[in-house]
TrEMBL record:
Domain HTH lysR-type: from-to ranges: 7-64
PROSITE patterns attached to this UniProt entry: HTH_LYSR
Name assigned to this protein: LysR family transcriptional regulator
This protein's UniProt keywords: DNA-binding, Transcription, Transcription regulation
Gene3D superfamilies on file: Periplasmic binding protein-like II (3.40.190.10), Winged helix-like DNA-binding domain superfamily/Winged helix DNA-binding domain (1.10.10.10)
Protein family membership: Belongs to the LysR transcriptional regulatory family.
Annotated SUPFAM superfamilies: Periplasmic binding protein-like II, Winged helix' DNA-binding domain
Transcription as UniProt keyword: yes
Length: 297
């Protein structure tokens, strides 16, 4: 090994992400690389160390004792680096806040609203950081996390509930399924192949339960790793997708998508999660987000 007798940084980053998220797919999404790239980095790291860091259990992975030790050390090290980066970013201006949020939420909801946010809260400077998978309780490198979730919450967090999460089927009105489903009861969807995403496997079953349907009767078609790609596929006319209402509100208003049966509550909430210490700027941001979700979805 070179340098300070450490393995390659890319291999350590891939290992830490898999150890923390418990999934090759989620680690690949967070690192913006392919599933195969993460797998290769893990293999190279195990070969360099001469140790097995994971063992397969069914279709999943479990850390070995050696992997557990390295995972804990790597997690602490990367959190310290992220904390240092946050401090450097904050140094660019006393009012800068680093906000983490899922990439689909960032791309389809936050970015279209940034101009209005800057106009309404002119003293607040934000650095928006895309994040996939679960957030660490310590929020390393972040001042807050904008996410959709439900209790139990980490004890380190102060959770600002913003709005109930609502989901529903959406489809391009030009797609043949739109005509088949128009005016029909929700059970008509059981005959369709449904677009779905690995990041929200529970979404279709939640909707089916809310409609009194058997989730096992749903037929899944093409799958996507990220919610963002799923929604782009729906807008592109590839089929029926399941979507959070705020992320498709603009598409429905413009006629690019229709929601045949509207949206149902999932029991989860949109939340801005911060540390317990009071931060007036983040309080203002939480209030603005809450109002924006109430007015425009």
């Amino acid at each position: 090994m070179s340098g300070r007798n450490l393995p390659a940084l890319n291999a350590l980053r891939a290992f830490e992400a898999v150890a923390r998220l418990g999934s090759l797919g989620r680690a690949a999404a967070e690192l913006h690389v392919t599933h195969g790239a993460v797998s290769r980095q893990l293999r190279l790291l195990e070969e360099e160390l001469g140790l097995a860091l994971f063992r397969r259990e069914g279709r999943g992975l479990r850390l070995t004792d050696a992997g557990q030790r390295l995972g804990e050390a790597a997690g602490i090290a990367f959190e310290q680096i992220q904390d240092a980066i946050r401090s450097l970013r904050r140094g660019a201006g006393p009012d800068t806040r680093v906000i983490g949020c899922p990439g689909s939420l960032l791309a389809r909801w936050m970015i279209p609203r940034l101009e209005r946010l800057r106009r309404d809260l002119p003293g607040l400077q934000l650095h928006l950081s895309p994040h996939e998978g679960d957030f660490s309780p310590a929020l390393p490198g972040l001042d807050a996390a904008l996410l959709v979730g439900e209790p139990p919450w980490p004890t380190q967090w102060r959770v600002h509930a913003l709005a109930s999460e609502r989901i529903g089927p959406v489809v391009d009105p030009r797609h043949p399924a739109a005509a088949r489903l128009h005016g029909q009861p929700p059970g008509a969807l059981l005959g369709e192949e449904l677009l779905h995403t690995a990041s929200r496997p529970q979404a279709w079953p939640q909707w089916a339960h809310a409609q009194g349907l058997d989730p096992a009767a749903l037929r899944t078609g093409t799958g996507f790793e990220h919610l963002y790609y799923l929604l782009e596929a729906a807008v592109s006319g590839l089929g029926v997708a399941i979507a959070p209402q705020p992320l498709v509100a603009a598409d429905i208003a413009s006629g690019r998508l229709v929601a045949p049966w509207g949206f149902v509550d999932t029991g989860a909430h949109w939340c801005l999660c911060t540390r317990h210490d009071a931060d007036p700027q983040l309080e203002r941001l939480a209030g603005w987000l809450r109002a924006e979700l109430a007015i425009r979805g």
